[in-house]
Amino acid sequence: MSNPVPLLAARDLVKAHGSTEALRGASVDLRAGEILAVTGASGSGKSTLLHCLAGIVRPDGGSVTYGGVRLDRLPEKRLSELRRTEFGVVFQFGQLIPELTALDNVALPLLLAGASREDAHERAGEWLERLGVRGQAELRPGGMSGGQAQRTSLARALVTGPKVVFADEPTGALDSLASEQVMTALVHTARESGTAVLLITHDAQVAAYADREVRLSDGTVSALEVTA
């Protein structure tokens, strides 16, 4: 990548869940505008790494630096603010609110940030249009296909104009066609806006969309290779 300075950097991360060590000294860099795939077997620490980098959980050891600031030392209020404004998160099963329409789900981060309902709905509708699901705006998650729901989840992650998108197995519950649609939309949007993407996946075809690939094994980085 043209910018050698990482936007987000983890150094020697350690994290245990009870007696299980999920991370054992993992280190990784993510640069602005870069798509980085984190691959590895189930239980290798991929999701825990993402959670530490996104400030969802705090590591037991090591450091996470974002924009030159120690993310792991920030108070929870500031972390919550970052997740509302500069970070976007897409989970495997979308985690859309079932009682809300697609439009309201996408508008929610904007409303929480203080936007008016009219402005939030206008911007949410634009993102649904960009991701090809404007026709599902008034549907609730239960009335959408898996691919439609995941693109709606992606719209919700992108609507605030985040600097980093964390995607945790975003195609894991989708068929091959829906997976291709979601990844094409994610990559196109990231390239267009200069958003950095940390992509957790066990699928080699999904990882091939990334600029680089980091492989985790038993909680440590075991290999690094260029994929594009």
Automatic annotation (TrEMBL):
Pfam assignment, any one: ABC_tran
Molecular function as annotated in GO: ATP binding
Residue span, ABC transporter domain: 8-228
Annotated signal sequence range: none
Keywords assigned by UniProt, alphabetized: ATP-binding, Nucleotide-binding, Transport
Taxonomic superkingdom: Bacteria
Annotated PANTHER family: ABC TRANSPORTER RELATED, IMPORT ATP-BINDING PROTEIN
Protein name, entry field: ABC transporter ATP-binding protein
Organism taxonomic ancestry: Bacteria, Bacillati, Actinomycetota, Actinomycetes, Kitasatosporales
